[in-house]
Amino acid sequence: MLLNEDQIMIRDAVRAFAQEQLWPNAARWDKEHHFPKDAHKGLAELGAYGICVPEELGGAGLNYQTLAVVLEEIAAGDGGTSTVISVTNCPVNAILMRYGNQAQQEQWLRPLAAGQMLGAFCLTEPHAGSDASSLRTTATLEGDVYAINGVNHAPFAAFGGWSGAISAEAAPEVKDAAYAFLSYMNQPE
């Protein structure tokens, strides 16, 4: 893949961070089941959480090729950390940019792009793994709100419960359709 000068500069900055902060600690973090909040704060300062989010919403306004370069460098340092950054950028940010209204984008994309909250994609159910066609979680319209019922493990397994925005996939009453819902989770300090 041919990179432009800006992408090379971004790659080199993220690579240096990964070699300094992630790679030396990744095995210990895995062994101790540690979520590296300080490393994520450093990556947030580098803009890793909002690579493709438009600048007017607090992101870097870059393209998906640049996101791929950033994720590759982070993954070389720590695969788990790369997964967190990846899920926040795609699908959570991407879904909000494509389908969110202006108020939702303002409310959710700014803190997501700044790394003030993490995105999670809830697609793992005990009976189905990540087979979206086998989801049993339901979303039922009750008045003007949806009640979501089901069992999903993804945000807790992936991020130790430190997620702020959840894009929960649910199979509502409409056959062969899936919906994404946004929800806050507590963020322990």
Structural account:
A hairpin with an 8-residue loop joins strand 4 and strand 5 (179-184). The model has no long low-confidence stretch (mean pLDDT 84). Helix 1 runs parallel beside helix 4 (64-77), helix 4 (64-77) runs antiparallel to helix 5 and helix 5 runs antiparallel to helix 6. The protein has a 3-stranded mixed sheet. Helices cover 46% and strands 14% of the residues. The chain is of the alpha+beta class. The protein contains 7 helices and 5 strands, in the order H-H-H-H-H-H-E-E-E-H-E-E.
Q: What characteristics describe this protein?
A:
189 residues, alpha+beta, 3-stranded mixed β-sheet, two-stranded antiparallel sheet, 7 helices, 5 strands, globular
* Proportion of residues in helical segments: 40-55%
> Major sheet: order of its strands?
1-4-5
Biggest pleated sheet = 3 strands, mixed
> How far apart lie the N and C ends?
39 Å
The ordered H/E elements are HHHHHHEEEHEE
**3D shape:** globular
Portion in strands: 5-15%
Summarize it.
The chain contains seven helices and five strands; from the N terminus they run ααααααβββαββ. The protein has 189 residues and is α+β, with helices and mostly antiparallel strands. The longest helix has 21 residues, at 79-99.
